[in-house]
Write a structure and sequence with these properties.
The protein is built from 1 helix and 15 strands; from the N terminus they run E-E-E-E-H-E-E-E-E-E-E-E-E-E-E-E. The chain has 230 residues and is an all-beta fold.
Length: 230
């Protein structure tokens, strides 16, 4: 009698956590949860967990800090607390984990997957981009020491803006996040018809300069930058 074929799955088994937040593959973040170390995560992003973890949608801290991030569906963030291991994902998007060390980060709201609850955060108006009405005028600002998980539609590139004196110019719809200490301004090509960025719809880019980095994804997402995940 033929024996059933058992697929080889050992290569996909989880490994013991080595950090607070880390990747399990390219499209998933694994978070080591412990009592008193809560996480804010994008609503609906939980795909699995081990241990005892509780979830609170639209907690008071979120309602207060994200009053400009609200829609008829409520704030797109839930509070996760407890002990165990939490796995998050966002429709197969790539996940990037960053460990802030007394640093500040400005993130496109659609690319924010999770962050340590003790970080200071809030929805902020991005200065210097008045010409880009409707495109990135509001972001989520994060600061302090702790972990952040971002999503990217494809493998992102992280550009170090401090390597030279030249500006780093980015299509606004491909922008994921940047160091808050960078100088920012809108930039327009000489000819309005020069559509050099597919996602911009105009000949505008965002120019960065100074010490810091910019995270750019290989996809131009022109939808609402603070939309609720549906």
């Amino acid at each position: 009698m033929n024996q059933p074929v058992i697929p080889e799955i050992s290569g996909y088994a989880p490994t013991p956590p080595a950090a607070r937040m880390e990747n399990h593959g390219a499209h998933m973040v694994k978070i080591a949860m412990a009592s008193g170390q809560d996480v804010f995560a994008r609503t609906g992003s939980m795909i699995a967990y081990e241990g005892f973890i509780q979830y609170e949608a639209n907690p008071p801290a979120v309602r207060q800090a994200a009053s400009q991030w609200l829609t008829g569906e409520g704030a797109p963030v839930m509070k996760c607390s407890g002990d165990g291991v939490l796995y998050l994902a966002d429709y197969g998007a790539d996940v990037v984990c960053l460990n802030l060390n007394n640093e500040a980060l400005s993130v496109n709201g659609t690319n924010l997957l999770a962050f340590d609850a003790h970080l200071q955060w809030g929805v902020e108006r991005v200065k210097g981009l008045a010409k880009l009405a409707g495109q990135g005028l509001f972001n989520v600002g994060l600061s302090g020491t702790g972990w952040v998980a971002l999503t990217s539609r494809g493998t992102p590139i992280v550009v170090d803006c401090g390597r030279g004196e030249d500006e780093t110019c980015v299509d606004p719809d491909a922008l994921v996040a940047w160091s808050s200490g960078l100088k920012i301004k809108s930039k327009r090509t000489m000819k309005a018809s020069a559509l050099i960025g597919r996602g911009s719809g105009e000949a505008y880019q965002i120019a960065f300069s100074g010490q810091g980095f910019v995270v750019v994804q290989p996809s131009e997402d022109s939808t609402d930058r603070l939309r609720v995940r549906g």
